[in-house]
Design a protein that fits this description.
The chain has 63 residues and is an all-alpha fold. Helices cover 78% and strands 0% of the residues. Helix 1 crosses helix 2.
């Protein structure tokens, strides 16, 4: 059950990335809409993931 679900998510992510690249080159309106949704979802994930990790002021030192 987990493998088909993760495969579906992977297909959606790859499709979103393709639409972002296509929209950057002046693709059709629907591709620009999908790209906007993809970029907004990425920003939401980035902000929700980053806020919990940086709250204590300790980050990855890179060592």
């Amino acid at each position: 059950m987990a493998v088909p679900a993760l495969s579906g998510v992977l297909v959606l992510v790859v499709g979103g990335c393709v639409c972002v690249a296509w929209a950057a080159r002046g693709g059709p309106r629907w591709a620009r809409a999908v790209a906007a949704v993809t970029l907004a979802a990425g920003e939401l994930l980035r902000s929700s993931k980053g806020s919990g990790r940086r709250a204590g002021g300790q980050g990855d030192t890179g060592d």
